[in-house]
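Appendix B. One record, verbatim.
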Amino acid sequence: MYVILVYDVGEKRVGKMLKLCRRYLNWIQNSVFEGELTEVKLKELALIAKQIMDEESDSLILFKSRDEKWLEKEVIGNEKNTLEQFL
C-alpha cells in the first residue's frame, strides 16, 4: 500500500521519530514521508512510533491508498527530496 505519513512531536522526540520514519519511508519534507509499505511493516512502524510518542501531546497521521497511481501529487515551489531513482 502507498502511505503518506505526517507527524508532529515534541522537540525532544523529533530525532527519534525522524530516524524511525526514514527506516520505512522516503523523507519528503520536515515531518512528512511517503512510500510503499506492506501492511505488516506499517503496523510495525506505528507500534514503534507509539512507543516514542507522548500520545497526550504528539500526533502521527497516516494517509493510505492501495496504490500511488490513485493519488495526484502537485508540488509548488522547491521539492525538498525527489523520489527519482538513479541506475
